[in-house]
Amino acid sequence: MNAVTNVADEARIANEKAALRRTARATLAACSAEALRAAGDGVAQRVLVSTAFQSARHVALYIGVGREVRTDALLAAAHENGMRVSLPTWVAAEKRYYFVQNAEGGGLVPGPLGIPQPALSDFADINTCDLVLVPGLAFSRNGARLGHGGGHYDRLLAPVRDHASCQRVALAYDCQMHESVPTNETDILMDRIVTENNEYATASRGATSSG
After folding, report:
1. What's the CA gap between 84 and 58, in Å, rounded?
2. 2-210 CATH
3. 151-187 exposure pattern, b = at least 16 Cβ within 10 A, e = fewer
4. DSSP per residue over 35-90, as a string?
5. What ranges do the domains of the chain cover?
6. Are 146 and 20 in contact (CB under 8 A)?
């Protein structure tokens, strides 16, 4: 009975996630590129002045593509401030992403999904990371995150799931916030979510919000 129930629950959650992805993508598609760029600039500015970013010694970022919040200014600031910087790189032999170090001035090459990434060189020790900036499609105030369905970030973040010294911060637009986001046991919660108008300290850090 338990096995049947678990299978049924997983199927229900999968269907709920698929439905929310459709809704989230439609919402983003309805926004103009100019509006998202302006909102993304607001998100980046909030992160730039945050204590978490300014005090970080090792930060893991992503390269924003499509309608994701851009991280160009954050990447530049991290290098300018002498932080160790890591970016996701696809490792074809293992069919998954790993964080790889990106030295200042280090070039990026096209990844398999058209996402710029560092050339495969020195793997980053994610356990030494103070701050990880994470993209996604939909989020809730309790820290739940919905990605594109590949599970890439859940695998990337698994080593620091229980590390209190590493903050997992999602970058999002206000329109990506939802009352609830379906999750299962492999989904990793965010510690904080930053949008253009709000910051949410989530359930794992004591849920609060500020305008």
Report:
1. 4
2. 3.40.50.10420
3. eebeebbeebeebeebbbbbbbbebbbbeebbbeeeb
4. HHHHHHHHHHHHHHTSHHHHT-SEEE-----TTSPP-HHHHHHHHHTT-EEEEEEE
5. 2-210
6. yes
Half-sphere exposure of 85 (CA within 13 A, CB side): 25
Q: What is the Cα Rg of the chain in Å?
A: 17
Residue 202: closest CA among 161, 145, 118, 133? 145
Please work out, in degrees rounded to the nearest 5, the angle formed at the alpha carbon of residue 198 by the alpha carbons of 169 and 67: 65
Task: Tell me the C-alpha distance between 191 and 56, whole Å.
Answer: 15
Residue entry with tokens 């709920």: 16
In whole angstroms, what is the distance from residue 29 CA to residue 13 CA?
24
Residue 146, both tokens: 């919905």
Question: Torsion over CA of 26, 31, 32 and 37, rounded to 10 degrees?
Answer: -110
How does pLDDT run along the chain (211 residues), one tens digit per residue? 455 458 888 899 999 999 999 999 999 999 999 999 999 999 999 999 999 999 999 999 999 999 999 999 999 999 999 999 999 999 888 899 999 988 876 788 888 878 899 887 788 888 899 999 999 999 999 999 999 998 899 999 988 887 788 999 999 999 999 999 999 888 999 999 999 999 998 865 544 444 4
